[in-house]
Amino acid sequence: MTVEYGDTMRHHVTIFHTFLGAIERMPESLIAIMDALPYLLQGSMVTLVVVVGAMGLGFALGAPLAVGQVYGHPALRRFIAVYVWFFRGIPLLVFLFLFYFGLCTALDINLSAFTVAIIVLGLISSAYQSQIFRGAILSLPEGQLKAARALGMSDFKAISFIILPQALRLSIPGWSNEYSILLKDSAVTYALGVAEIMARAHFVATRTYQHLPLYFAAGVIFLVLTWVGTKGLRLLEERARIPGYSPQGS
Amino acid sequence: MTTPILRIENISKRYGKKDVLKGASLDVNKGDLKILIGPSGAGKSTLLQCINFLVKPDEGRIWLDEQEVHYANKRDLYAYRQKVGMIFQDFNLFDHLTALENVRIGMVRVKGMGKAEAGERAVLELERVGLKEHMQKYPAQLSGGQKQRVSIARALAMDPKVMLLDEPTSALDPELIGEVHAVIRDLGNNGMTMIMATHQIGFASSLASEILFMEDGRILERGTPDKIFNHAENARTQEFCSKITELYGERG
Question: Domain containing B186: what range?
Answer without folding.
Answer: 6-94+161-248
